[in-house]
Every structure is written in C-alpha cells, then in structure tokens.
Amino acid sequence: MPVVVVESPAKAKTINKYLGDDYTVLASFGHVRDLPPKDGSVDPEADFAMKWEVAAESKKHVKAIRDALASDPNLILATDPDREGEAISWHLLETLAPALRKGAEVSRVTFNAITKSAVTEAMARPRQIDQPLVDAYLARRALDYLVGFNLSPVLWRKLPGAKSAGRVQSVALRIIVDREMEIEAFRPREYWSVHARLATPRGDEYDAAMTVFGGKKLERFDIATEEQAQLAVAAIASRDLRVASVAAKPASRNPWPPFMTSTLQQEASRKLGLGARACMSAAQRLYEAGHITYMRTDGIDMAPEAVMAARDAIKARFGAEYLPKSPRMYKNKAKNAQEAHECIRPTDMMLSPDRLPVSDKDQKALYDLIWKRTLASQMESARMERTTVEIASADGQVGLRANGQVMLFDGFLRVYDQGRDDEEDEDSRRLPLIHEGEAAEKRAVTPEQHFTQAPPRYTEATLVKRMEELGIGRPSTYASIIGTIQDRDYVRKEQNRLIPEDKGRLVTIFLQKYFPRYVSYDFTANLEGELDDISSGERAYREVLRRFWRDFTAALEGTSELRITEVLEAIDEALAPHLYPPRPDGSDPRECPLCHKGRLHLKTARSGGAFIGCTNYPDCRFTRPISSPDAEVVGDTVLGVDNGDQISLKNGRFGPYVQRGEATAEQPKPPRASIPKGWDLASVDLERALALLALPREIGPHPEDGVPVEAGIGRYGPYVKHGAKYANLPEVDEVFTIGMNRAVEVLASKQVRGRAAAAAPLAELGEHPEGGPVQVMSGRYGPYVKWGKVNATLPRDLEPGAVTLERALELIAEKAAKSGKKPAKKAAAKKPAEKKTAARKPAAAKAKKAG
C-alpha cells in the first residue's frame, strides 16, 4: 500500500476515509525538522548553508513513516498547498531519503479542499516537489533566523529587559507604537453642528442638518464655538423655511467578495471577537474535517463548479429573484496570490450552519460566517432609493438638508453584511412624503457640540488590514506575528484593542534609531515582494540572502561600541516631546514634581519595564510610567495595621506594591507584593493588600500524591502549582478563590507540546441561558457540573446520569453566589498556558522565531 503523509492526524483520518484500505495514511505532526536554536545553524560564510535537525518529538513520527515504507516504498506527500506545506514535504523527503528503496516512487499531491472528489482528483494528478516554493521558504527561514540571532543579542546587551526582535514582528510592533504616539500627540478640536426637527404640512416629522449659514456653505469647522452655534440657531428660528428640492436617486450595493485569510480574520474579530490565532485554529479544524477549503490564501476567486453549487443553493433557499443572471467573478489583486489558491468557502454549499456536524462553538460560528459570505458573494445586488431634501429660507441665508434611504430589494443583504471597524456617516433613515415647494415647519432647533477624535487603536482586525495594505507579512504569518508580540509582553490587548507596553515602545524606538531600514514599511514590503519572486522562479534565493546580509552586518557593526547609557539618552531624547510635554504653568517639564530638586529622565528596570525617575534617587523616589506624562504624584499610603505591622501601599521603581512593616537593620527587606496589572490602585484596601501578602496560597494536598497544591502570582501571571508543575490561570482574582477540583482540572489540562489533554465530559446537558455549555465532569473529589469557570460538586445522593439541566443550573447559581464570581461566557484557560509555554522557552530559541 502506498504511504500517504499529511501534517495532522485529523487530516489523516479524513483522507483515510476517502482513500480506503488501498493506502496507508500517516501524519507527520507538522514540521519534522527545524534549525537548531543555536548560533551557526545558518552559515553566511558557507553561502548560507543551513543545518537541519529532526525534533525529538518528531523522531517517533518519522520512524512510523519509515517502518510503513518498508512494506511499500511508494511515498505520496500530501501536505498543505502552500509554501509551508511544500517545505514540510521537502523536509520529509530529505529525512526519509536514506530509507527509500532504489527506484521508489515519490510524488507530491495537493488539494484545496479535503473532500472525496478533491482528494481523488489530486491522487490522479501527482507532481514533483515545487523547488521555487521550497526556495522561498528557505529564504524566509534564513532571513528570520539571521535577524533573530543577530539583532536580538544587540537588544539584550543594549536595552535591559528587552526580548528578541523579529524581521516582520518588529514592523508590526512599530505600526502599533506609531498609532499610540499619534493618539497621545492628538489635540481635540471643537466644532458645532445645528440640527432641526421639521414637519410637513401633513404633520409628518423629519430631521435635517444645517448646511448653509449666512449664505455660505458650511464646512466642518465653520461653527467653532457655542456662541456661533447659538447665532446659527437664531438664524433658523427667525426665518420661514420651504422645501427647495427633493431628489430621489436609485442606488445599489454589490456584495463583498468571498473570504481570503486576511478578510476572514478581520470579520472573525469584528463579529465573533476571535483573535487571529483562535480564528485560524478554528478554520484549520474545519478544513481538516473537510468542511471548508484551505484557509491560508490571498485568493478570492472561486472554482467554477463551486460557483454553480452556490447559485443552486441560493435559488433553492431564497428564490430565483436573488440570483443574478450571470455568475459573479472576482479577480485576485495580490501579486503571486499564495500560488493562486482559491478563496475560503464551504466544500458543500448545501450544508447550512445549523446542519454542520460540529459541536465546537468557535468552529460553528466561523463556518456560519464563511457560508453566509460565500453565498452572499454570488447573490443579487441590494437596490435602494436615496432621497436628498434641500430646505432653504427665502433670502438664501439659511439652508438645511435631510437625507433618507428606502430599501427596495435587500438582495445579498438578506444573508450577510460586512462588519465595520468604525461607524460610517451614512444616513439610512426613512423620510416621510415631502413635496418640493411646501413649507417646512420648525418643531425644534438644537446645537450639538463635537470634538475631533484621535485615531482609534488597532484591533487585531484593523492591524491585519493595515499590514495587508502595506504588503507586510502573508496569510500564513498574520496570526503568529500578532501572537508573538503579545507573548513577549510588547503589546497587551484590552477590550479587543492592541496597546503597546513600555518595553514595546522602547524596542521600537531603539530599532528606529539604530536599525531604521529594518523596521521600514517599504523595506519590509519590498523584501516580501522578493520572496514572492523567488517562489515564482524569478529570483535566486541565495542572491537575496547575500544582499540582505551585506547591509545588515554593516548596521550591526555600527552598534558594537554603544553603551547602555548612550542608548537610554538617545531614546530619552527621541521621546522627549512625548515624555515631557509643556506644563500648564510654564515650568520646566523635566523638574521633579515631588522634590523639585532632581530632574526627570528615562530609566529601565531589569524586568524590561521602563519608567521616568528622578536623578535625586534614592533621596527622592518619584516615578511614573512613560505613557502617563500627567500622572498624579504618588507617595506612600498607609492602608491599616495587621498583627502590629503597618500595611502600606508604596510606589517603587518597578511600579506600585504593598508592604508589611518597614525596613529595619534586622529585616532590610520586609514582605512585599506587587500590585497585579489591571488592578485600580484606588481599590487596593487593607483586605486586598493582606490577600496579596499572603500569597502563595495553599489550596490543599493533591489527591493523587498528597503534595501541596498552591495558587499564586508569578512573573508570568496567576498560576496554580503542584510540585514542579505550573499552570496559568486566566484571571488574577481566581488565585484567591480557586478550589481543589478546579486546580486539578487546570493542572491536568495544561498544554503539552501545544496539545491539550483535557478530560472529556461525562455528559453534555445543554446551553446555559447566558451562553456556554453546561457539562457533567469527573473530578478528583467526585463528579461535578461545570459552566465556564464555575465548578459545582454534585450532592452525594445525586448520580451523574440523573442530573438535569435545570438541577445543574441551580447548583451553578448556588456555587457562583458563594464564590462571588460570575464566569465569562467562554472559558479561556488554555490561552495563558500557551503563553507560559512560549515564555519559558530558552531565549535563544525565541530569537529564531520570525515575525
């Protein structure tokens, strides 16, 4: 039986169904080889020779494939149809070559969807490995390695606390930092608008906005003050108004094209709240199960048979009036669009989301989005009538305008409309019947104050959109880039917005100061273009590497003599307008506001944080974050007394903390605990301070071995600990309330090599009224019901099989009331574990990662 190799066991299982017993289908579990995380794995002196190593966890998978080849030497490489998939096939062939018999047949097959027809057709048309695609992968991998292993050590030596830098990751970070600087430099500008509530002679009311004042057409900032607005109100109030014209024009809206990777990530963020990583993870599982086509693509065209299937589904579900006379065609705009992949679409257009055989909520929601967008892309346009009514005074001194819209035919909007990142100023209100020449009676005239708004912070959706516009990164890299800058604590996400941390700002300014070319948008985009040229066979990859390395080494040499103090001074100077803005009283912005003797300057902490401190330290301990020039001066606050010790809230060079007692000769370092990120200082009272000082908190002996289980807050956030094993908790507050059942569950589901080993529920009872599944689980202390982060133990007289949803809801409500917490609708305990796993890798290993 020929041996077919794919990346994942899920994909192997689906393909095995289609191929049957005539083939042996095995999984490689991703890449089997990588560059060892040590210097010298890419050797520029040997024309960029690359030393590959089979990963320890991959050896058993390679052995399984090698053993299967012993009985049938024919090898079919069926990995994904992109550069990464081509690279995996190349690595497999290179690794298995010694085990292949002489004359063994090796072929490469690709399919854009894991369906029986697509797989069967691909098997009938095998090819050889596409070397230009492999060369493009080798070039990207070498570039990322060379940047990581040469630029990161410069950061470590010259900027204390900084982590590694990446070729594309650093540019993505710059985009976020640049936007934050724009926001902080923004000064709002006041302006006013005037609106009138008018009525027709028949008594029907409508709204209109003032567009002419004093005979002059109004621009946005023409009414700048309240006084001018009141004059405008008086001008309208003192005049009779008539309808000067009524213009009704037909309009139409065409549907959006089907999804490609970037637009799928943007919509998943807007509509489902899914980050890029979660979106791609759900899409990967849908693809491997055969429900959607390949999800890493720049393409928006659709296979002809898929177009016809979509049209059949539209006609059957919505009627012939929703079907355009001819199919809609969408053309790829991207150069070398991921080697001309198809769009992301359902493999079966008739499989509606309500019939999808999947229980995972994210997968179901994402499939619903893909299915609707695909059908909508082939539907009839929406038709509407837009009406513009001009109202004016007889002397022409005052003019107003009313806009309205009537939907004549909803077309594709019946199924789907794209989400928006920001509100659009489109007036879609309906207007009553209004005739030209009739009077417009004034019911109310009101002025409205406005201020210009700073540009919004990036969400994951808008960052992907911006990177796509700039030509930075590719579909397969967006999720890892965004994930990496968050994992390294360069950026944090709050309310779905990406906010740069202080260390992220410092790294960006450092790179802009000393390596400006390598965080340049144009340079990075041009390099991506060169990689595309390699994949299409138009460039030799070593040529690109030679030119890059020559210039890059020159830039590295320019920083060899730099001292840390020089770097801090340069960054301090570059950030001066932001760090030390003019004060309202005209005093020196750098004068310390606490002691009035020292001067403020930039300092870095060993932890990588940055802050503004006083040169009069340690006599003066004033500090403030670099992102808060107007921060209130913070001194020490006594919260209360416990067991004779004074409990204080203090502000140190590493941020605010609580302390028990004061430093003495006998105890120079009294017990302290940092205030966790996200806690409002005003909420820190004696009770919370004592809870922090009491950490780590012992939960109890582990039921398996009796070793104590503890909860605490560490360098990487809140955690539970059993012996030498740590597992992250999603929220700080859970440290103080977590019980043994929950702790054992978190420890058991800690991710091992990126794959969770969570226990399966005993029963699925249904959905909680506030969202999320309610399950019966088997716990170390007996069975319990689970909803989100609430675990409620079953009474002894209640068997797991007898639990109803109603009874489970009662138990959950009782437990939630006792613990005083309400869980999120969607549990997110796994993500911090992923973050911790990444954070605990050796620094050298992290340095090799690409943006």
TrEMBL record:
Keyword Glycosyltransferase belongs to the record = no
Q: Where is this region: Disordered?
A: 816-851
Q: Which residues form the active site?
A: Y294 (o-(5'-phospho-dna)-tyrosine intermediate)
Q: Name one GO biological process term.
A: DNA topological change
Q: Which Pfam families match?
A: Topoisom_bac (PF01131), Toprim (PF01751), Toprim_C_rpt (PF13368), Zn_ribbon_Top1 (PF01396)
Region Interaction with DNA: start-end pairs = 164-169
Reaction catalysis annotation: ATP-independent breakage of single-stranded DNA, followed by passage and rejoining
- The site (Interaction with DNA) lies at H31, R140, R141, D144, W156, R296, R488
GO cellular component, alphabetical, reads: chromosome
Residue ranges of domain Toprim in the record: 1-114
The protein's UniProt keywords, in alphabetical order, are:
DNA-binding, Isomerase, Magnesium, Metal-binding, Topoisomerase, Zinc, Zinc-finger
In which residue ranges is the amino acid composition biased (Basic residues)?
Answer: 818-829
Transmembrane as UniProt keyword: no
- Domain Topo IA-type catalytic residue range list: 130-556
Among InterPro entries, the record links this protein to: Topo_IA, Topo_IA_2, Topo_IA_AS, Topo_IA_cen, Topo_IA_cen_sub1, Topo_IA_cen_sub2, Topo_IA_cen_sub3, Topo_IA_core_domain
Report the GO molecular function annotations: DNA binding; DNA topoisomerase type I (single strand cut, ATP-independent) activity; zinc ion binding
The EC number on file is 5.6.2.1
* Family from the record: Belongs to the type IA topoisomerase family.
Assembly behavior:
Monomer.
Function, as annotated: Releases the supercoiling and torsional tension of DNA, which is introduced during the DNA replication and transcription, by transiently cleaving and rejoining one strand of the DNA duplex. Introduces a single-strand break via transesterification at a target site in duplex DNA. The scissile phosphodiester is attacked by the catalytic tyrosine of the enzyme, resulting in the formation of a DNA-(5'-phosphotyrosyl)-enzyme intermediate and the expulsion of a 3'-OH DNA strand. The free DNA strand then undergoes passage around the unbroken strand, thus removing DNA supercoils.
Q: What is this protein called?
A: DNA topoisomerase 1
Q: Which organism is it from?
A: Paracoccus versutus
